[in-house]
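Two folds, back to back.
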Amino acid sequence: MLCLRQVCLFTLRRYQARTLSSDLLVSQINSCTHEDEVFSLVGRNKARLSEKHVAIALNVLWQLQKKRPLLLRTSDYIRNHSQFLTLCILAENKVEHMEDEAIVDTLYSILRLNVQDHDSLAEVLVTEAWKRLERLSLPALSKFALCLYKQHRHFSPVIGKVAHIVDMKLDSIQDIRVLSVLMISISDVISQSFRDRLLHKAEQLLEENDEVHFNYAKRILQFLQNVKLRYHPLVEKCNKIFLKSASCLDIHSIGFIFGQYEQLGFDSAEFRLVAKQLLSETIDDHHDPETFAKLFFALGPMAGSKVRERLLLTAVHMAEEFSSHQVLVVLKTMQKMKCRNSHLLKKMASVLHKHLDSYHVLQLVKLTQYLVALRCHNLELFAKLKMLLFGFLKSNVIPADTAAIIRVLAMLPSFQVEEIIISKAAAVLPQCRLHHLNCIAAALVKWNHYDQFHWQNNSELCVKLLQKLNDYGFQRLQKANNLNLLLEELTHVNGEWFEEVLKEETMAVCQLLVDQITRANVLQLSFFLIKTNDRCPSLLDRIASVTVENIDKIHPFEICFILFLFSALNYDPPANEAFFESCIQRLTSNLSFFETHQLVLLGHVLAVAGYFPPVLIKRIFNVSFLSKLDAQLEVLPHTLKQRVRLHLMKLNRAVCLECPEFHIPWFHERYCQRVFHNSSSRINPLRQHVHRMLTEILGGSNYARISVLTPYYYEIDFECILDENKKPLSYTAQHIPLDEVEGIHMRHDINGEGRMALPPGAQRIALEFLDSKAFSKNSRHLKGEPAVKKRHLEMLGYQVVQIPHFEWNSMGLSTKDEQIEYLKKHLYGIQ
């Protein structure tokens, strides 16, 4: 008994000593402040290292690296150290004894230390974690999923298993960090319904958490990009998180966010302002090519003239150091900036020669597009591009890539078409989607038009190929039985070929699928109809009814675009008042969703339709609002900036004319003067011809004016005055003052004040010629803007005569005498 007691005490003391020793070693490893300290401990205690010690040591090595800036990390040194190899061997041998969390942590640590994805330890850890997948906690599962994502195992069976577990446990996930990691990791293996559940869960968690780290929001943007979904409600929530976290954002985060916004079709003037301020303050801190390229991309398009020049100058000096990717970024940004800096362009072209062979096919396509848009004249560079593109074309078997190459070859200067292009195009036609067919058609039409074929035989082949292409386009449309898939294909389809060949058939197919219009696709269909300028009552009526039925489920921003469709086409659906009132109620209750420039665009859309919600008008025409708008306009893209300014003027004019009770002043006098003084002359041959006929009809040149500016700066083609007996009155005899500025007659009562009275019963006549742009496609129905102009001219005291192009250009008015009779009838027949 005594012997047994002594054995037990000895065993207990040895166990306690080992435990204390182990705990001490764990503490020593955790307290290391440098990699060499960790390696020293490993070297001295190899025999005593348990699976726990190994896992902790590898984790500490990563944590030490994580604390350092990217450029100061020493991952290569760590991986090449003999004791790191020792740790990896020990981990591989002890993996079965590791705890679940330790396996995932170890895998994560070695991958962050840039161990090869297919290293034996990585493979063993993945296999062991896969075995224990069902029992991993949600945080450990998300970390493991992220490891698989970093290893590019996007479609592996294990990722499918992870997705299944997430599907089962989704309702129990309450941590947005865990969810965001899982979302991007499984994004390639989920169904549409599962995707929608993930989005709903993400929205819910973002709403429930006041403090969300901006990295989680970045992951959600990445998920939306991965699944190629433009879902603005969730992007807006992420944008608010970025604005709250502005002080924590660096150049890498800002560049990432701008890149994702561009891909997702989202823009935020407020974020642009914040980013511009942050980047402008740190412009002198970016001396290496990587961070400068990101600075150029993010700041360049919204920089003022002085900062812009600094950026361009630095880009010239740094050009030789740019990587192939950074060259693409700079050229893309130059295109967005509409930069024609010849010195920088020449420098980038010379640098490109050493990078061309490293680009894959789609990068070459984008590169060619940038150079053509920037008007590069380096023929040697284009010759090399042509050679490389031809090489890819010959070996390529992917229809989308083949179509992209053919489309971009058509952009090259002095390009001669070779038979290989015709044969490759013919080979992929049966597999092409509508967008790819459109790309090939655009190239063939251009080549045929400019006769760029080497041999006559090629020209004949091209015509036959175009006919085949048309047939495949019709076949693809006729097989369409899913509106969502059809709209997805039509997103990037436009141009001459589509308009002339496929548009009519496309509209017919959409009408056949009218019952498939839902709140999920109503916005996409509205975009398509805006693009095609087509007034199709059955589709428009269905859009209106679906919108009203789902008004509380459709995002206010989407409702704005739907209203734009009806406003622009000047179309009244059944129950028109109820439709607009329902939409306006939804919009005015959610004005906080809109940025200042978006509210201006919304106000203009409603004004064209004849609606002026007081809450919106009073909000826009407010000094603080207009000051905020001025600040945001400075960072918006040039085209959008010009459109907002123009629409603010139009809204101001509409409110002054139609809602005098709001007492909003007209404050666009200088803007309008500047626009008209900077614009080119508008006296075209048709106007001169008609003016001569009007002079003949009315009895002299002093009875008619050409290109007249009215009060509030409407320009009308012709103006004359008729007395109560329909006889013309001379401007000279009536002493009506007019200034002539660059061929434009401007009335002195331009602001509507101090207006010179006409004789009793006399009437001003505005004669307007309406071209095809004033009407819906293939329709005689007047669009919204021309209808508003007529309404406003009548408010200004005019009787308006509108001459449609389809009447003036008809066979019935083929002679001068017939045209004169037509004008007489419309001038004197006004009731």
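---
second:
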Amino acid sequence: MLFVCSQMHSLLQVSYTSWFLDAFNYAIATKMDVLNLSIGGPDYLDLPFVEKVWEITANNIIMVSAIGNDGPLYGTLNNPADQSDVIGVGGIDYSDHIASFSSRGMSTWEIPHGYGRVKPDVVAYGREIMGSKISTGCKSLSGTSVASPVVAGVVCLLVSVIPENKRKEILNPASMKQALVEGAAKLSGPNMYEQGAGRVALLESYEILKSYQPRASIFPSVLDFSDCPYSWPFCRQPLYAGAMPIIFNATILNGMGVIGYVDGPPTWHPSNEEGNLLSIHFSYSEVIWPWTGYLALHMQIKEEGAQYSGEIEGNVTVKVYSPPSQGEKSPRSSTCVLQLRLKVVPTPPRSKRILWDQFHSIKYPPGYIPRDSLDVRNDILDWHGDHLHTNFHLVFNMLRDSGYYVETLGSPLTCFDAHQYGTLLLVDLEDEYFEEEIEKLRGDVINSGLGLAVFADWYNVDTMVKMRFFDDNTRSWWTPVTGGANVPALNDLLAPFGIAFGDKILNGDFSMDGEQSRYASGTDIVKFPRGGYVHSFPFLDSSESGATQNVLLSAGMTKADSPILGLVEVGEGRVAVYGDSNCLDSSHMVTNCYWLLRKILDFTSGNIKDPMLFSPSVKQDNPLYIDDNQLPSRRTDVNFSTYSSVVGKELICRSDSRFEVWGTKGYNLQVRGRNRRLPGYPVIDLGRGLNSTAEVFPKTRPKSREKRRGDSGGNGYLGGLFYRDELDMPVLVASHWLAPAVIAVAGILLFFSFWRIRQKRRRRRKGSGSVRMANP
């Protein structure tokens, strides 16, 4: 029998989507068995490419792909390796340490309104690997594109040892991934978003395949809060009553067939009486295609567990079935098990609880969301997720080390009870705000004593215009839809407190209390109330020079004192604002400002006033003030509703808010939304009183395919990007790609360095006009 394994790679700076579509069609036509793709990029909304990958795997071709070389940053997974039906491979060195260049999870398809999946799937040796030169001899190569074909070679060997008469029955993308992740050797040290299941192990995977019977399973199959650091971030913070739901997003692998169905809601089985204190709601793929789906657990402790301290153990089961295979009469059926071991503590005091606003974050894709630091030239897009567990993971660790409990809000500001939190933390936010949010936050601070801490970024319309470029692939101009932060929206939110940011772009170094800090493309404060404390420093204003010019001090460019930090008591609450978030963002951080964040939280949460921050010399005897018509204005040439979860949308509390307000407008706004429900968020019957409820889609083929798109992106949390009643976007429908392919091949292993895609194009592709750009 002929064995052929194919590898695709990019040796050029630019590679077009159409080239990949042609190559994928060739792979399908020749009935390849294994396909390695040592290329990738952040644009998981390149629909022609993503859909063709689904077609590849639906035709029983096992795709292996490099996870990316954007490490050690988190939230940097490349597509297609981040797709659940693809085996995503990270890199390690010969000491079993995660390679610094290897991209880290979690997947970002699901955020800001959900939670990402575990990726990579496995890791393999990818540093200083010997391979052939194009001419003669050998050379040493490093990169995840070297690790990926190593795994592709393992897959080819595993295919070759399965008897030919059983290959069609046993081998498929799901069963191969089951064998790899279940046979992998977990490394000590790295967490699940760095190593996935661990280092690939050929012999262990062979033993699994040798006796394999088609089944479904869950990856990861265990969530253990006591297993640190592997189970980071879950092992860093226990559950407690009154918290926002903790979301864990697992992948369903269905080795029984390309299409499968979840047979009824998942079920929580506590192993002891204390397990009844845990309430779990589920969202999941009702239709599993191709080969994979998702199971998301939304977990919170019931109020009767407010004083409980200990562990909760048990398991979640979900039944999956697939149509009978050729020659079979009955459907195939399997029960998947996810084991849980959770830590629970008594509810912390209000002053130790911080709420992180994730809802108002917008990232690339789909829009041109520019980088926060204009000093960075090689990464023009803000694409790392802006989540506490991606590029702000160091902030999360620091806050936990400081004794704070940090929760995430992926719904509007009306969807949390301000009496439970010491501080609402707003960092690097790009979206608008509902009028109800502005009004509620005003009352939360002034009347309920909520602390508010805001870290903004640059916003300058002239600079945004200068940052535009013409994309000759989509034949359109690309221009930023907002700045590093949406300052006009933040100013609306802060207006009740007499605070506003300006449109300067400030750069420079400064020192406070012996702490050296870098202010990198931050903004200035132009309005602040009398009696507050405002800190100013001499910085260079580069707003007039534009983003493409060098911001080094030169003739004609002078430094002037600019207000950048303000603190004030407002009614029962406290507000602190700072004009730069780069010192918290691990993506392009020069120096961190964790020391400043801790002092700010001491004030906003505990009314502890640091003598340095509250020196009489910086107290404002007169307010900072400019007319409203001088404040930064919104762009009028951008259809912001295309990217926003607010503009043109309905205010509704989603499934990452407290269960009691699901499907409502929030606290003190207990009015159901309009009849048109937000896609993926049916109105929840809050009167059920059950431990478990399920959130699913109807079993219609168009909806199944529509759900499947959100599924591969995890949980349908894409904020309406693919739904006809939300945006003028294509609605994906079930296709005819489900015909199984005959497994025929395996073969040759090539080594090439990884060329990372950096895509600069619109979300709506024009088919063959799309381009996948790669940087070395």
